[in-house]
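Sequence in, structure out. Go.
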Amino acid sequence: MKNKTKLLLRDAFFSTILSSIIVLLLVLVFFNLRWFNPIHKAFYDFSFLDVFYSEKFLEPDKINTDIVLVNAGKDREQIVELLDKIIEAEPKVIGVDIIFKDKKKDVYVDSVLAALLKKDNIIASYEIDKKSIIPNHPYFGNSKSGFVNFNFDSTTVVREFQGYIKMDGMERASFGVQVSKNYLEDKWNDFDYDRKLRRLQAVKYSGKYDSFLYLEYDDFNAYKKKKILKDKIVILGYLGSPTGSEFDIEDKSFTPLNKYSVGKSVPDMFGTTLHANIINMLIKNNFMVTISNTWLVIITFLCMYLSTLFYMKINRKYKISFRTRKRTFQFFISLFVIFLSFWLFKLNVVLKPTIIIVGIILAGSYFKYYKHLTRYLKSKTNKKWKTYLK
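Output:
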């Protein structure tokens, strides 16, 4: 009995290694062949964890009154008027999520805008396009600014953000980082963010624009409205016309809050709101912990190994009903992994279940290659190759 157990453990281990090699080769082919690009893209932009957001399984955070969004619209004169009134209300930090690429014919408006952007508590923005930078026109120069990009890889859905990026020999900070750093002041170092944000961080979403306090141009005509901005973070940017319009897709991104978990067709969140979610996460120090790829590989291998033990056991014991038992096991173990990842997600731990589930399912198919390999070794070697498999 002990000998059989030893053989089972050994065979399952070698079989898992063989399955892992085959899976790795398939992944390399899958990700590199152009023919597979559309399929690769579809899988790359899919995550089971998006269901948590889109189906509202997570309870949204309370409205963060420290962050106020202001819809800037598209008219520069209106933007200047809004910015002037925002500054008058004495917020602690003002993030201007608008890039003024050129000067207009109205010299007066641009001169006022240039003067306003030089205020100490204003954070300007710029965009990184491949290896070039798209900033404000030099006329609107501002020493404090951050890049507004969210994704630097090929993903469409914004699930992670990058706090810092090295470019042209210097380190650049994101718009959200710059705004949060100026708001937190000494707490920034207490949270050790300069080190922490050099790694990709999962975005913990609080909600769409209506999860924050937000104002329109007309709201500034009432003095009482302006009082709520004092000592707050104000983000001036585009929130649609009208505000929050589902059909206005300018400066919009796909996020896990999209009502369609699969087959997302219309972007669902304006960049200004995305920045607000990131800033909210930073000032609250409320992060998601992402299981690293190294640990994900280790967990997947262990799950494949334990599954292979089960496959070999029932393959030896139940010849007729093996396939039914195998598929039943795969169905329930896949559900378990998904619900485990959901439970961890509620605890702010991100465990990506897809690769684990794929590994478990493929291990059930590829262990037979190991079985054929043992038969081959038996036929080609003089010594008897002992194996648990029949």
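Check: DSSP finds 13 helices and 15 strands in the chain. The longest helix spans residues 2-32.
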